[in-house]
Design goal:
Length: 334
């Protein structure tokens, strides 16, 4: 057995469940764990987790530093999986320190607030009760990586004794046949839940909306309107959900730069704000459209509330002439 195991969390924003399970597995065998080792002299073997595919090549350069390195994560390969004996481990909740997570938290926030937020994350339980999804969205890796929706765990097994916070990683909780039972258990155990992947508002029913309203949420109720053609289903779901959870508590992620025109993107923004729901623009990670990046800043920073006309948004006004002169257009826009 290797006695010194290095774990590299290459591009995560919160704690990394896979690395926490690897840590627990090797600690049980008496190994020393080094998170993000600075030198190959510190470790005998290294595991590196890559979340985002855009960082794959950069991560691969670590092989020139650490000769005994093994890569994994969705950003590295859709075929990468933990061995069954490691997947079965409960996570090592002592792997991350509060300061390490606080250093990752961006935004305009005092250090004290970052420490408070990081403490919540570090002390939270985390995991999946289901994998896969009922959808086959062409921009999403989940159907290819995890397949159809299936049960893989229980709420009770994800709880960290240090707090009543639960970070639930399920890809589509509201499409789960056991959704209502799981929400009831969360309520009965008096947990505060962060449904990180959001809910599928198109699956919303009055029963699910009521159950969601009866549990405590760590942050907003968030969902997505990714495809312009899903308007009716999304709007119906929002109305059903809002009968139990006020719209000011909603957040709608809106994918742009994949297969929509800019006018369709602006329409979804207007429709959501007119409905009373805050949108959050997500630019498709392979898009290089500068206009969309300006649009995302204008929306996500809530600049539109003081500058309602995007065409009068000063940073975009400065870049607009060069943008059109260069011929840079949305791929799907005539």
């Amino acid at each position: 057995m290797r006695n010194r195991i290095g774990l590299i969390d290459f591009d995560g924003k919160i704690v990394n469940l896979a690395l926490m399970k690897i840590s627990a597995y090797y600690k049980a065998q008496g190994a020393k764990i080094v998170l993000n080792p600075a030198s190959p002299a510190q470790v005998d073997k290294v595991y590196c987790s890559v979340v985002f595919s855009k960082n794959r090549d950069k991560a691969a350069r670590l092989a020139t530093v650490f000769p005994h390195i093994e890569f994994g994560g969705t950003g590295w390969s859709l075929d990468s999986e933990l061995p069954p004996e490691i997947e079965a481990m409960k996570p090592d909740y002592g792997l991350y320190t509060v300061d390490a997570i606080a250093d990752r938290i961006g935004g305009i926030m005092t250090r004290k607030k970052k420490i408070e937020k990081a403490t919540t994350i570090v002390n939270a339980g985390i995991g999946f009760t289901s994998r896969g999804c009922i959808r086959t969205c062409p921009f999403c890796v989940v159907p290819r990586k995890e397949g159809e929706l299936k049960r893989v765990g229980e709420i009770k097994d994800l709880i960290n004794p240090l707090s009543n916070i639960l970070i639930l990683l399920d890809n589509n909780l509201t499409a789960d046949p056991d959704c209502l039972a799981k929400l009831r258990e969360i309520k009965d155990r008096e947990l505060t839940v962060d449904i990180t992947q959001g809910i599928d508002v198109r699956t919303m029913t009055p029963e699910i909306a009521k159950a969601l309203a009866e549990v405590k949420h760590l942050r907003s109720i968030h969902y997505a309107w990714d495809m312009p053609g899903h308007e009716t289903a999304v709007m119906n779901g929002i109305e059903t959900l809002s009968r139990h959870i006020k719209k000011w508590k909603h957040l709608c992620f809106t994918l742009v730069g994949f297969n929509s025109t800019f006018e369709e993107d602006r329409y979804r923004f207007r429709k959501l704000t007119e409905t009373g729901v805050d949108p959050f623009i997500m630019v498709y990670n392979q898009s290089t459209d500068a206009r969309l990046k300006h649009f995302a800043r204008w929306v996500n920073s809530r600049i539109y509330k003081v500058c309602p006309d995007f065409d009068k948004y000063e940073p975009w006004m400065k870049d607009r002439l060069g943008y059109f002169a260069s011929g840079q257009l949305n791929l799907f826009e005539a």
